[in-house]
Amino acid sequence: MKTLLKNGMVYRNHEFAKTDVLLDGRTICAVGDDLQADGAKVVDVAGAYVVPGFIDVHTHGAVGVDVNGASAEDFEKICRFQATQGTTSWQGSILTDTREQTLACIGEYNTWKAMEHEGADLMGIHLEGPFLCADYKGAMPEHLLQKPNMELLKEYQDAAHGDIRYITVSPEVEGIPEFIPEMKKLGMVVAIGHSGADYDTARKAIANGAMASTHTGNAMKLLHQHFPAIWGAVLEDDNLYCEIICDGRHLHPGTVRLIIKTKGLDRVVAITDSIMAAGLPDGDYKLGVNDVVVVDGDAKLKSDGTRAGSTLTTGKALLNLLEFTGKPLEQILPLLTENPAKLIGVYDRIGSIEEGKEADVVVLDKDCQVIRTYSKGKEVYRK
């Protein structure tokens, strides 16, 4: 199936230009002016923005589905919802859980891979734990946290056939800095978070290969002028990526601007950290083994009121970032496209509109609302 997107303002090389994009099967076949293609479905997108599909590397669920307890069919339900938000690729974030439940979740992911798909691509797995600090556990069940266990991690990665792409660890947990190179050898990008690590310990983890900071500023010891701690370490480092949750609750808009100004637009990754309540009204929900209540869109643990993920979507994150920063669309888009792709190591195939890359494309109207989503060349959402 060929699709020819005509007359759109196409985002390439960090700027917009009016041109055409030809999708052929799963691939972006051509980008250029006045393209023609026999047998192609021609879609006139004049007046609209044509941008790379959004990538969410950290999300725990949506539309009534919790990743930890999801079936293969449930994963597909999330995929179809994600497409409505402009997301074309996402990682299922498994909250710290039992070995048995984690392996069951991985098994359902494997089953999903063999299914026919009509939404965003579930491109892999993110393990948020279990090697995390109890003092900054956030919504993590403390009794399931543990010291690094490479045999367990190998078992998980073998079960996932190498598709655990991302893991969050706490640098101060005994042995973590030394184990980071081993985690990387397993094919996992390592992020640090849920942490009260001092500056030097965090710096050691970064020196040993940590590439990102999980939901920066949340479940994390804050910067003090005498004790910069983990937050100071991640803000200072030129190469490390900072995840940010831009829902206006996890980070004040001024903090969002400060992180972007400190890190630069090329080292910030917008995530949702969404839970099963995303796309649904307020009410009672689950996050892994935890009971969660959502009031006015704000998700918190029933037990103690700790914030527990979000109800954010990528489409809303884009609008919030534009509002919070006042920056133009072309400067904000990398936070949802190029940067997460580079962090996870998939920029060779997704994250930008280039000939030969996978045909993950989103069409935005003049108000930056998602009106069409193409995943691997297939139209999976139309407003």
UniProtKB/TrEMBL annotation:
MF terms in GO: metal ion binding; N-acetylglucosamine-6-phosphate deacetylase activity
PANTHER family, A to Z: N-ACETYLGLUCOSAMINE-6-PHOSPHATE DEACETYLASE
Cofactor binding, note field: Binds 1 divalent metal cation per subunit.
Lineage: Bacteria, Bacillati, Bacillota, Clostridia, Lachnospirales
Cofactor(s) required for function per UniProt: a divalent metal cation
Organism: Hungatella hathewayi WAL-18680
Residue ranges constituting the Amidohydrolase-related domain according to the UniProt record: 49-380
Keyword Chloroplast recorded: no
NCBIfam families from the UniProt entry: nagA
Residues holding Zn(2+): 128, 194, 215
Keywords: Carbohydrate metabolism, Hydrolase, Metal-binding
Active site (catalytic residues): 273 (proton donor/acceptor)
A GO BP entry: N-acetylglucosamine catabolic process
Protein name: N-acetylglucosamine-6-phosphate deacetylase
InterPro entries: Amidohydro-rel (IPR006680), GlcNAc_6-P_deAcase (IPR003764), Metal-dep_hydrolase_composite (IPR011059), Metal_Hydrolase (IPR032466)
Family per similarity comment: Belongs to the metallo-dependent hydrolases superfamily. NagA family.
Entry keyword annotation includes Iron: no
